[in-house]
Amino acid sequence: MKSRWLGAAVMIVGSLFSTGCFDRSELEEQAFLIMLGFDSPKPDVVNVIARVAIPSKLSGTSGQGGSSGGGDFEQGTPLVAAKGRTINEALSLMNTGIERKINLSHLSAIIFSEETAKQGLLPYLRTLSRYREFRRNHYLFVSHGDLSELMQSQKPLLELSATRYIEDLHLTNRSLGYAPSVQVEQYLNALYSPVIDPVLPVLSVNEQKTQKENKKLHFSPGHIDRLGGNPVECVGTAIFQKDKMVGMIDGMETRYLQLLNGSIKRIEIAVPSPYQHQTYLSVGIRPSKTTTKEIILKGANQHIKIQQNMEAELLGDQGNVSYIDENNRTVLEKMIGDTVQKYENRLLIKLLRKKKVAPIDFLEEARGDFPTYDAFAKFPWPKTLAITPVECHVKVVMRRLGSQLNAPIAP
Fold first, then answer.
1. Are 162 and 149 in contact (CB under 8 A)?
2. Where along the chain do its domains lie?
3. Which residue, among 396, 275, 270, has the nearest Cα to 325 in the 3D structure?
4. In this predicted structure, what is the pLDDT of residue 408?
5. Quick check: helix, strand or coil at residue 28?
6. CATH assignment of 265-411?
7. Are 222 and 207 in contact (CB under 8 A)?
8. What is the tens place of the pLDDT at every residue in 87-104?
């Protein structure tokens, strides 16, 4: 009988100490950071810039435009900043100016300054990965130019929500191809690979105040010939060796890199007319069949050969040539293939031989030629790829000529 009463007493006392939400976290007590920027002006100092969401100013904003030139965007997700010796210290100091506890569970993007990227990103990724709120689907970017200026210049034309703004950047990059779309998981996977070098998209402030009469078009970060819209543009790719940035390629080179890697389904390009001087055609191209790769890295017959098969669609023709004629169409198909082939070969030479970097995904397929993974990892990849002949061959088949087959002719 005594044991029953004793057991009941233990259960009652235990329930008094085990119930309740001692670590409860109410929504009204949280400050959600949507975007983080990291800059290290000194080796022992990290500057953290963040966009914090104000839910009351973001409610009901879906579908509304940012016609006020970014003012509403700034009010809904204002910037806060703090410096510290570590990221954690900077965030805690930042929290002294925010009435609620900082929470990273709604974080969408992380932007690293160019100088920070050159020093190496692993110290930051190691720290952030220890947060419970940190996830591997955050989007990563590199800032070309001053990070603080870039984040202050963000004025989306249509979006008021910073989360939607980042998602739109991802969709635009996947559609246009002028910059890659990279998440933490993808970056780390490339970092773990012995052969593939990581890449990140580049954010920059467009420097065009007025449209200038340029002799040629520019596709480098911050120099796109455009006016209006968001001053911040996502163009170009930062190339890394391990976790350190070693260079950039422009937006046009980025498109052909993604075409080589198979990370973009379709792009639209301008090709010169094979029949009319200084006349261009707009075509859409997409990979049609599996790309074949032949990678031989040892012996006298060392080479890399890539055969791409693509389908093309004629989107716009400023000339008056009819491509219904089979001979004309064959000449156009060859012109498109030669154009893509020329840019891809030029890009591979620039990356593998000059910069000695290899952000080429299909090189992982060479793993089967090595007896063990250790042999694959210890292989001198940069030195070997720098002297390996590389050839890209592109075959194009024209599938669609538009709804009006013949070019309009004035009476």
1. no
2. 29-251, 265-411
3. 275
4. 59
5. helix
6. 3.30.300.210
7. yes
8. 989 999 999 998 889 888
Rounded CA separation 202/85 (Å): 26
Q: What are phi and psi of 149, to 5 degrees?
A: -65, -40
Can you give the three-state secondary structure of 308-334, one letter per residue? EEEEEEEEEECCCCCCCCHHHHHHHHH
Residue with tokens 């879906």: 62
Comparing 122-131, 137-146, 149-158, 235-244, which segment has the lowest mean pLDDT? 122-131
Secondary structure class of 251 (helix, strand, coil)? helix
Residues of 252-283 as b/e, b for ≥16 C-beta within 10 angstroms?
A: bbbbbbbbbbebbeebebebebbeeeeeebeb
3-state class of 189 per DSSP? helix
- Global pTM reads 0.86
Closest to 136 (Cα-Cα) out of 147, 144, 128: 128
The C-alpha atoms of residue 85 and residue 46 are separated, in whole angstroms, by 6
**H helix or E strand, kind and range, residue 341:** helix 326-348
Q: Name the H helices within 64-183.
A: 71-76, 87-95, 114-119, 122-128, 147-153, 162-176
For residues 92 and 147, give the distance between their C-alpha atoms in angstroms, rounded to a whole number.
21
Distance of CA 384 to the CA centre of its chain: 28
Q: What residues have CB less than 8 Å from 18, skipping those under 6 apart?
A: none
Residue 365 CA, chain-centre distance (Å), reads 23
